[in-house]
Design a protein that fits this description.
The chain has 251 residues and is mainly β. The protein has helices at 5-14, 121-126; strands at residues 28-29, 58-65, 68-79, 83-92, 99-109, 112-115, 130-139, 151-163, 170-191, 194-209, 220-229, 233-239, 242-250. It has a single domain (5-250), classed as YmcC-like fold, CATH 2.40.360. Helix content is 6%, strand content 53%.
């Protein structure tokens, strides 16, 4: 099934690379059943207080954009001493909606997390008509420790191949994706999973793509604000007209 435009929007706005980790952070009050801690700081290389790292942990989110609703989840599918494999699953209730999923590999280094690749969103959304591979990755998905004022960055070089209709063949386009994040404060936030004290993170993601068939592509920028809670991870995000809120956590 071909995914709807809503799913494509969710994917683009969700994988911004924003995240944070802290050894000491605000606590939480309230919360739905099952919204317990998803990570500890017990000394393992993948332990990160603000990102799900225990194998089998699943965070489920509700989304809303342009009058349509949907959902997605992040699940820790595999965990080793130095790596995580994350499974993303997206769905929508909009007309013509559907679901799709893909995985992403993450490297762990004393609590700091780095994405080894930018997920192959194009292939998932278009049923294989667009495929992408990461040729370079650097920076952090989530640092080990933060405080208000902490900044971090991540960057990916992507090569995408677009299969055109009929006998038109294919085109290849190269893109660089840069993300900059900053912790701007702490505040209370309420979502379906509960009410929490959270770190507020502002991120800017810029995509610069090369020309396609000689046609220049202008840079694209998405600005997001996200809230992260100790032991849970991201509980809310607002970006490009899309709102995301944590509904439940299962382990």
């Amino acid at each position: 099934m071909r995914a709807s435009p809503l799913i494509a929007t969710l994917l683009g706005l969700t994988l911004l690379g924003a995240g944070c980790a802290a050894p000491a952070a605000p606590g939480a009050s309230g919360g739905a059943s099952g919204s317990g801690s998803v990570a500890t700081r017990g000394g393992g290389a993948c332990d990160n207080a603000y990102f799900p790292s225990a194998q089998g942990t699943k965070l489920e989110y509700a989304t809303a954009v342009s009058g349509s609703s949907g959902s997605y989840s992040i699940e820790v599918q595999e965990r080793s001493a130095t790596n995580l494999k994350l499974l993303y699953t997206f769905s929508t209730t909009a007309s013509g909606g559907g679901s799709l999923s893909f995985t992403q590999d993450v490297r762990c280094d004393d609590g700091a997390l780095s994405a080894l690749s930018y997920a192959d969103i194009g292939s998932a959304v278009t049923g294989g008509r667009v495929s992408a591979r990461t040729t370079r990755s650097s920076g952090l998905l989530m640092p080990r420790d933060i405080s208000v004022g902490t900044t971090w960055t991540s960057s990916f070089d992507i090569e995408a191949t677009i299969t055109l209709p009929g006998t038109l063949g294919s085109r290849t386009v190269s893109s660089t994706i840069n993300n900059e994040s900053r912790v701007v404060g702490q505040e209370s936030v309420t979502v379906p999973a509960g009410t929490y004290q959270a770190f507020k993170v502002e991120s800017t993601l810029t995509t610069q793509s090369g020309p396609i068939s000689g046609i220049a592509i202008p840079p694209q920028t998405v600005v997001s604000t996200s809230w992260f809670v100790e032991g849970l991870g991201m509980v809310k995000s607002v970006a490009g007209g899309m709102s995301t809120q944590l509904v439940r956590v299962t382990q």
